[in-house]
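Hi C.,

You asked whether I'd gotten around to modeling the 371-residue construct. I have! Everything is below, sequence then structure, no commentary in between.
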Amino acid sequence: MLQLRKKGAGKMDVNATDGERGNVQAAGGGPMTSLWSRVSWKKPLSLTYAEESSENPHLERTLGCFDLLMIGIGGTVGSGVFATAGLIAKSYAGPAAVLSWILAGFGCILSGASFMELSGLIPSAGSTYAYAYHSLGEMPAMIAGCLLTLEYGVASAGSARSWSDKFESWLHQMGVEGPVWMKPKDSSIDLYAGLLMSLCVGIVLCGMSAGKQLINIVTVTKISVVLFIIVVGLTKFDSSNMDPFIAPEHINAVDQVVFGWPGVMLGASASFYGYIGYDEVCCLAAEAKNPTRDIPRAVFGTVVGAAFLSTLATLSLVGMQKYTEIDVAESYGTALRHVGYHWAAPIVEIGEVFTMPVGILIGFLAQPRVQ
Protein backbone atom coordinates (compact mmCIF):
# COMPACT_ATOMS: atom_id res chain seq x y z
CA MET A 1 0.00 0.00 0.00
CA LEU A 2 0.96 3.62 0.27
CA GLN A 3 4.22 4.43 2.02
CA LEU A 4 4.85 7.78 3.68
CA ARG A 5 7.76 9.65 2.17
CA LYS A 6 9.07 11.55 5.16
CA LYS A 7 11.95 14.01 5.30
CA GLY A 8 13.00 14.20 8.89
CA ALA A 9 10.69 14.21 11.87
CA GLY A 10 7.20 15.43 11.10
CA LYS A 11 8.07 16.45 7.53
CA MET A 12 7.09 14.85 4.27
CA ASP A 13 7.67 14.99 0.57
CA VAL A 14 5.69 17.62 -1.32
CA ASN A 15 4.79 14.92 -3.85
CA ALA A 16 2.88 12.86 -1.25
CA THR A 17 -0.84 12.31 -1.80
CA ASP A 18 -3.54 14.01 0.24
CA GLY A 19 -4.13 10.78 2.16
CA GLU A 20 -0.45 10.49 3.01
CA ARG A 21 -0.32 14.10 4.20
CA GLY A 22 -3.29 13.44 6.48
CA ASN A 23 -1.58 10.43 8.00
CA VAL A 24 1.67 12.31 8.65
CA GLN A 25 -0.10 15.29 10.15
CA ALA A 26 -2.14 12.95 12.34
CA ALA A 27 1.04 11.33 13.63
CA GLY A 28 1.84 14.46 15.59
CA GLY A 29 -1.69 15.24 16.69
CA GLY A 30 -2.29 12.65 19.40
CA PRO A 31 -4.01 9.25 19.40
CA MET A 32 -7.55 10.58 18.91
CA THR A 33 -6.50 12.69 15.93
CA SER A 34 -4.65 9.72 14.46
CA LEU A 35 -7.69 7.46 14.90
CA TRP A 36 -10.01 10.00 13.29
CA SER A 37 -7.58 10.45 10.40
CA ARG A 38 -7.57 6.73 9.75
CA VAL A 39 -11.32 6.18 9.86
CA SER A 40 -11.99 9.28 7.72
CA TRP A 41 -9.23 8.62 5.17
CA LYS A 42 -10.54 8.82 1.60
CA LYS A 43 -9.09 6.67 -1.12
CA PRO A 44 -7.64 8.89 -3.90
CA LEU A 45 -9.08 8.47 -7.37
CA SER A 46 -5.54 8.36 -8.75
CA LEU A 47 -4.94 5.17 -6.78
CA THR A 48 -8.10 3.58 -8.17
CA TYR A 49 -7.17 4.52 -11.74
CA ALA A 50 -3.73 3.01 -11.20
CA GLU A 51 -5.26 -0.21 -9.86
CA GLU A 52 -7.74 -0.43 -12.71
CA SER A 53 -5.06 0.14 -15.35
CA SER A 54 -2.92 -2.70 -13.98
CA GLU A 55 -3.71 -6.31 -14.85
CA ASN A 56 -5.52 -8.31 -12.16
CA PRO A 57 -4.78 -12.04 -12.55
CA HIS A 58 -7.95 -12.97 -10.64
CA LEU A 59 -10.44 -10.73 -12.49
CA GLU A 60 -10.51 -10.76 -16.28
CA ARG A 61 -12.40 -8.08 -18.20
CA THR A 62 -14.86 -10.30 -20.05
CA LEU A 63 -18.22 -8.58 -19.45
CA GLY A 64 -19.74 -6.49 -22.22
CA CYS A 65 -22.77 -4.22 -22.00
CA PHE A 66 -25.17 -7.07 -22.84
CA ASP A 67 -23.65 -9.31 -20.16
CA LEU A 68 -23.96 -6.57 -17.53
CA LEU A 69 -27.54 -5.86 -18.57
CA MET A 70 -28.45 -9.54 -18.26
CA ILE A 71 -26.85 -9.65 -14.80
CA GLY A 72 -28.85 -6.60 -13.72
CA ILE A 73 -32.17 -7.77 -15.14
CA GLY A 74 -31.58 -11.33 -13.97
CA GLY A 75 -31.23 -10.09 -10.41
CA THR A 76 -34.36 -7.92 -10.53
CA VAL A 77 -37.01 -8.86 -13.07
CA GLY A 78 -38.98 -11.94 -12.13
CA SER A 79 -37.35 -12.59 -8.77
CA GLY A 80 -39.26 -9.71 -7.17
CA VAL A 81 -42.44 -10.15 -9.19
CA PHE A 82 -42.67 -13.90 -8.65
CA ALA A 83 -41.90 -13.58 -4.94
CA THR A 84 -43.80 -10.45 -3.88
CA ALA A 85 -46.44 -9.41 -6.45
CA GLY A 86 -49.17 -11.60 -4.97
CA LEU A 87 -48.33 -10.59 -1.40
CA ILE A 88 -48.40 -6.86 -2.18
CA ALA A 89 -51.70 -7.07 -4.06
CA LYS A 90 -53.52 -9.27 -1.55
CA SER A 91 -52.15 -8.02 1.76
CA TYR A 92 -51.05 -4.42 1.26
CA ALA A 93 -52.43 -2.44 -1.66
CA GLY A 94 -55.06 -4.37 -3.65
CA PRO A 95 -55.30 -3.34 -7.33
CA ALA A 96 -53.28 -0.22 -6.44
CA ALA A 97 -50.26 -2.52 -6.20
CA VAL A 98 -49.61 -1.23 -9.71
CA LEU A 99 -49.01 2.20 -8.18
CA SER A 100 -46.74 0.64 -5.57
CA TRP A 101 -44.46 -0.75 -8.27
CA ILE A 102 -44.49 2.57 -10.16
CA LEU A 103 -43.57 4.58 -7.05
CA ALA A 104 -40.80 2.17 -6.09
CA GLY A 105 -39.54 2.24 -9.67
CA PHE A 106 -39.43 6.05 -9.66
CA GLY A 107 -37.38 6.01 -6.46
CA CYS A 108 -35.02 3.42 -7.95
CA ILE A 109 -34.57 5.52 -11.08
CA LEU A 110 -33.40 8.44 -8.92
CA SER A 111 -31.08 6.15 -7.00
CA GLY A 112 -29.93 4.53 -10.23
CA ALA A 113 -29.03 7.96 -11.64
CA SER A 114 -26.57 8.38 -8.76
CA PHE A 115 -25.12 4.95 -9.45
CA MET A 116 -24.77 5.79 -13.14
CA GLU A 117 -22.83 8.97 -12.40
CA LEU A 118 -20.62 7.40 -9.75
CA SER A 119 -19.89 4.27 -11.79
CA GLY A 120 -18.68 6.45 -14.65
CA LEU A 121 -16.46 8.48 -12.33
CA ILE A 122 -15.18 5.58 -10.19
CA PRO A 123 -14.70 2.46 -12.37
CA SER A 124 -13.95 0.24 -9.39
CA ALA A 125 -15.47 -2.98 -8.09
CA GLY A 126 -17.42 -2.73 -4.86
CA SER A 127 -20.41 -0.56 -5.76
CA THR A 128 -21.56 1.50 -2.74
CA TYR A 129 -18.52 0.43 -0.73
CA ALA A 130 -16.12 1.86 -3.31
CA TYR A 131 -18.13 5.06 -3.76
CA ALA A 132 -18.27 5.67 0.00
CA TYR A 133 -14.53 4.96 0.31
CA HIS A 134 -13.75 7.74 -2.16
CA SER A 135 -16.29 10.32 -1.06
CA LEU A 136 -16.94 9.78 2.67
CA GLY A 137 -14.01 7.86 4.11
CA GLU A 138 -12.98 4.44 5.32
CA MET A 139 -15.41 4.09 8.23
CA PRO A 140 -18.55 4.95 6.17
CA ALA A 141 -17.23 2.59 3.49
CA MET A 142 -16.96 -0.22 6.04
CA ILE A 143 -20.56 0.42 7.13
CA ALA A 144 -21.68 0.42 3.49
CA GLY A 145 -19.84 -2.86 2.91
CA CYS A 146 -21.55 -4.47 5.91
CA LEU A 147 -24.95 -3.28 4.67
CA LEU A 148 -24.26 -4.64 1.18
CA THR A 149 -23.31 -7.98 2.69
CA LEU A 150 -26.54 -7.99 4.66
CA GLU A 151 -28.52 -6.95 1.57
CA TYR A 152 -27.17 -9.68 -0.68
CA GLY A 153 -27.36 -12.32 2.04
CA VAL A 154 -30.89 -11.53 3.21
CA ALA A 155 -32.22 -10.98 -0.32
CA SER A 156 -30.74 -14.26 -1.54
CA ALA A 157 -32.05 -16.15 1.48
CA GLY A 158 -35.53 -14.66 1.00
CA SER A 159 -35.54 -15.56 -2.69
CA ALA A 160 -34.38 -19.09 -1.86
CA ARG A 161 -37.23 -19.56 0.64
CA SER A 162 -39.75 -18.24 -1.88
CA TRP A 163 -38.32 -20.54 -4.55
CA SER A 164 -38.62 -23.46 -2.14
CA ASP A 165 -42.34 -22.80 -1.66
CA LYS A 166 -42.89 -22.70 -5.42
CA PHE A 167 -40.77 -25.81 -5.98
CA GLU A 168 -42.71 -27.76 -3.35
CA SER A 169 -46.03 -26.58 -4.81
CA TRP A 170 -44.90 -27.60 -8.30
CA LEU A 171 -43.91 -31.07 -7.06
CA HIS A 172 -47.31 -31.42 -5.38
CA GLN A 173 -49.12 -30.52 -8.62
CA MET A 174 -46.99 -33.09 -10.45
CA GLY A 175 -48.17 -35.71 -7.96
CA VAL A 176 -44.76 -36.00 -6.30
CA GLU A 177 -44.37 -35.72 -2.55
CA GLY A 178 -40.87 -34.75 -1.48
CA PRO A 179 -39.23 -36.00 1.72
CA VAL A 180 -40.83 -34.43 4.77
CA TRP A 181 -37.44 -33.94 6.43
CA MET A 182 -36.37 -31.60 3.61
CA LYS A 183 -38.90 -29.02 4.78
CA PRO A 184 -40.58 -30.08 8.04
CA LYS A 185 -43.91 -28.50 8.87
CA ASP A 186 -44.00 -26.08 11.80
CA SER A 187 -40.25 -25.59 11.45
CA SER A 188 -37.99 -22.92 9.99
CA ILE A 189 -35.69 -25.55 8.48
CA ASP A 190 -35.71 -25.48 4.67
CA LEU A 191 -33.15 -27.78 3.09
CA TYR A 192 -34.46 -27.09 -0.42
CA ALA A 193 -33.40 -23.46 -0.03
CA GLY A 194 -30.09 -24.49 1.53
CA LEU A 195 -29.26 -26.87 -1.32
CA LEU A 196 -30.12 -24.22 -3.90
CA MET A 197 -27.83 -21.66 -2.28
CA SER A 198 -25.05 -24.26 -2.05
CA LEU A 199 -25.45 -24.99 -5.76
CA CYS A 200 -25.21 -21.27 -6.56
CA VAL A 201 -22.02 -20.98 -4.50
CA GLY A 202 -20.56 -23.91 -6.46
CA ILE A 203 -21.31 -22.17 -9.76
CA VAL A 204 -19.67 -18.96 -8.51
CA LEU A 205 -16.55 -20.95 -7.63
CA CYS A 206 -16.37 -22.16 -11.24
CA GLY A 207 -15.56 -18.62 -12.35
CA MET A 208 -17.18 -15.80 -14.28
CA SER A 209 -16.89 -17.44 -17.70
CA ALA A 210 -19.17 -20.33 -16.69
CA GLY A 211 -21.51 -18.15 -14.66
CA LYS A 212 -21.87 -15.54 -17.41
CA GLN A 213 -23.18 -17.96 -20.01
CA LEU A 214 -25.64 -19.52 -17.57
CA ILE A 215 -26.90 -16.12 -16.41
CA ASN A 216 -27.44 -14.90 -19.98
CA ILE A 217 -29.44 -18.00 -20.95
CA VAL A 218 -31.58 -18.07 -17.81
CA THR A 219 -32.22 -14.31 -17.86
CA VAL A 220 -33.46 -14.38 -21.46
CA THR A 221 -35.75 -17.26 -20.45
CA LYS A 222 -36.96 -15.30 -17.41
CA ILE A 223 -37.80 -12.24 -19.51
CA SER A 224 -39.69 -14.49 -21.92
CA VAL A 225 -41.73 -15.95 -19.03
CA VAL A 226 -42.62 -12.48 -17.71
CA LEU A 227 -43.62 -11.30 -21.19
CA PHE A 228 -45.71 -14.46 -21.57
CA ILE A 229 -47.50 -13.65 -18.30
CA ILE A 230 -48.18 -10.09 -19.43
CA VAL A 231 -49.50 -10.95 -22.88
CA VAL A 232 -51.58 -13.97 -21.86
CA GLY A 233 -52.87 -12.35 -18.68
CA LEU A 234 -53.97 -9.12 -20.33
CA THR A 235 -56.10 -11.08 -22.80
CA LYS A 236 -58.29 -12.02 -19.80
CA PHE A 237 -58.18 -8.63 -18.13
CA ASP A 238 -61.42 -7.91 -16.24
CA SER A 239 -61.88 -4.29 -15.22
CA SER A 240 -64.35 -5.29 -12.48
CA ASN A 241 -61.44 -6.82 -10.58
CA MET A 242 -59.93 -3.33 -10.35
CA ASP A 243 -62.91 -1.90 -8.45
CA PRO A 244 -62.21 -0.36 -6.03
CA PHE A 245 -58.79 0.55 -7.36
CA ILE A 246 -57.71 1.91 -3.97
CA ALA A 247 -59.33 -0.39 -1.41
CA PRO A 248 -60.58 1.01 1.92
CA GLU A 249 -57.83 1.04 4.49
CA HIS A 250 -57.94 -0.98 7.68
CA ILE A 251 -55.60 -2.32 10.36
CA ASN A 252 -54.38 -5.89 9.94
CA ALA A 253 -53.53 -8.48 12.59
CA VAL A 254 -50.06 -7.02 13.24
CA ASP A 255 -51.36 -3.45 13.67
CA GLN A 256 -50.30 -2.28 10.20
CA VAL A 257 -52.50 0.13 8.27
CA VAL A 258 -53.03 -1.64 4.95
CA PHE A 259 -54.84 -0.73 1.74
CA GLY A 260 -55.74 2.85 0.95
CA TRP A 261 -52.81 5.20 0.41
CA PRO A 262 -50.92 3.88 3.45
CA GLY A 263 -51.15 0.43 1.89
CA VAL A 264 -49.87 1.77 -1.43
CA MET A 265 -46.80 3.20 0.30
CA LEU A 266 -46.33 -0.01 2.30
CA GLY A 267 -46.53 -1.94 -0.95
CA ALA A 268 -43.98 0.40 -2.52
CA SER A 269 -41.53 -0.34 0.29
CA ALA A 270 -42.08 -4.08 -0.22
CA SER A 271 -41.80 -3.87 -4.02
CA PHE A 272 -38.46 -2.07 -3.67
CA TYR A 273 -37.12 -5.56 -2.98
CA GLY A 274 -38.02 -6.41 -6.57
CA TYR A 275 -35.60 -3.78 -7.87
CA ILE A 276 -32.55 -4.96 -5.94
CA GLY A 277 -29.98 -5.87 -8.56
CA TYR A 278 -28.88 -2.72 -10.34
CA ASP A 279 -26.25 -2.12 -7.67
CA GLU A 280 -24.93 -5.63 -8.28
CA VAL A 281 -23.94 -4.49 -11.77
CA CYS A 282 -21.64 -1.88 -10.23
CA CYS A 283 -19.94 -4.55 -8.11
CA LEU A 284 -18.65 -6.12 -11.33
CA ALA A 285 -16.95 -3.00 -12.71
CA ALA A 286 -13.51 -4.61 -12.42
CA GLU A 287 -14.61 -7.30 -14.89
CA ALA A 288 -16.31 -5.00 -17.41
CA LYS A 289 -14.56 -4.43 -20.73
CA ASN A 290 -15.41 -0.72 -20.70
CA PRO A 291 -16.76 0.13 -17.22
CA THR A 292 -17.08 3.90 -17.69
CA ARG A 293 -19.35 3.36 -20.70
CA ASP A 294 -21.11 0.03 -20.08
CA ILE A 295 -21.88 0.20 -16.34
CA PRO A 296 -24.10 3.34 -16.56
CA ARG A 297 -25.92 1.90 -19.58
CA ALA A 298 -26.53 -1.41 -17.83
CA VAL A 299 -27.79 0.30 -14.66
CA PHE A 300 -30.22 2.47 -16.64
CA GLY A 301 -31.48 -0.47 -18.68
CA THR A 302 -31.92 -2.60 -15.56
CA VAL A 303 -33.97 -0.05 -13.60
CA VAL A 304 -36.19 0.98 -16.52
CA GLY A 305 -36.66 -2.60 -17.72
CA ALA A 306 -37.50 -3.85 -14.23
CA ALA A 307 -40.02 -1.05 -13.65
CA PHE A 308 -41.74 -1.64 -17.00
CA LEU A 309 -42.00 -5.43 -16.77
CA SER A 310 -42.87 -5.59 -13.06
CA THR A 311 -45.64 -3.00 -13.35
CA LEU A 312 -47.24 -4.71 -16.34
CA ALA A 313 -46.96 -8.16 -14.75
CA THR A 314 -48.70 -6.88 -11.61
CA LEU A 315 -51.41 -5.23 -13.73
CA SER A 316 -51.94 -8.56 -15.46
CA LEU A 317 -52.28 -10.34 -12.11
CA VAL A 318 -54.84 -8.00 -10.50
CA GLY A 319 -56.75 -7.85 -13.79
CA MET A 320 -57.17 -11.62 -13.99
CA GLN A 321 -58.28 -12.25 -10.41
CA LYS A 322 -59.86 -10.31 -7.56
CA TYR A 323 -57.12 -9.25 -5.17
CA THR A 324 -58.86 -10.91 -2.21
CA GLU A 325 -58.65 -14.30 -3.98
CA ILE A 326 -54.99 -14.14 -5.04
CA ASP A 327 -52.84 -17.07 -3.94
CA VAL A 328 -49.68 -15.54 -2.46
CA ALA A 329 -47.54 -18.67 -2.96
CA GLU A 330 -48.63 -19.40 -6.56
CA SER A 331 -50.12 -16.10 -7.66
CA TYR A 332 -49.72 -16.28 -11.44
CA GLY A 333 -50.39 -20.00 -11.86
CA THR A 334 -53.56 -19.78 -9.77
CA ALA A 335 -54.74 -16.66 -11.60
CA LEU A 336 -54.25 -18.30 -15.00
CA ARG A 337 -56.27 -21.33 -13.91
CA HIS A 338 -58.93 -18.99 -12.56
CA VAL A 339 -59.47 -17.48 -16.02
CA GLY A 340 -59.47 -20.88 -17.73
CA TYR A 341 -55.90 -20.92 -19.06
CA HIS A 342 -55.02 -24.29 -17.56
CA TRP A 343 -52.49 -24.91 -20.33
CA ALA A 344 -50.59 -21.70 -19.54
CA ALA A 345 -50.29 -22.20 -15.77
CA PRO A 346 -47.71 -25.04 -15.93
CA ILE A 347 -45.57 -23.01 -18.34
CA VAL A 348 -45.43 -20.12 -15.88
CA GLU A 349 -44.88 -22.35 -12.85
CA ILE A 350 -42.03 -24.25 -14.50
CA GLY A 351 -40.56 -20.96 -15.69
CA GLU A 352 -40.67 -19.56 -12.15
CA VAL A 353 -39.02 -22.63 -10.65
CA PHE A 354 -36.18 -22.73 -13.16
CA THR A 355 -35.47 -19.00 -13.51
CA MET A 356 -35.82 -17.64 -9.95
CA PRO A 357 -32.47 -19.15 -8.81
CA VAL A 358 -30.53 -16.84 -11.14
CA GLY A 359 -31.25 -13.93 -8.80
CA ILE A 360 -29.64 -15.85 -5.95
CA LEU A 361 -26.67 -16.72 -8.14
CA ILE A 362 -26.13 -13.07 -9.06
CA GLY A 363 -26.30 -12.01 -5.41
CA PHE A 364 -23.55 -14.50 -4.54
CA LEU A 365 -21.59 -13.44 -7.62
CA ALA A 366 -21.52 -9.80 -6.54
CA GLN A 367 -20.79 -10.43 -2.85
CA PRO A 368 -17.05 -11.30 -3.15
CA ARG A 369 -16.51 -8.15 -5.26
CA VAL A 370 -17.35 -5.89 -2.30
CA GLN A 371 -13.70 -5.16 -1.48
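If it helps when you're writing up: Residues 1-34 form one domain.

Thanks,
B.
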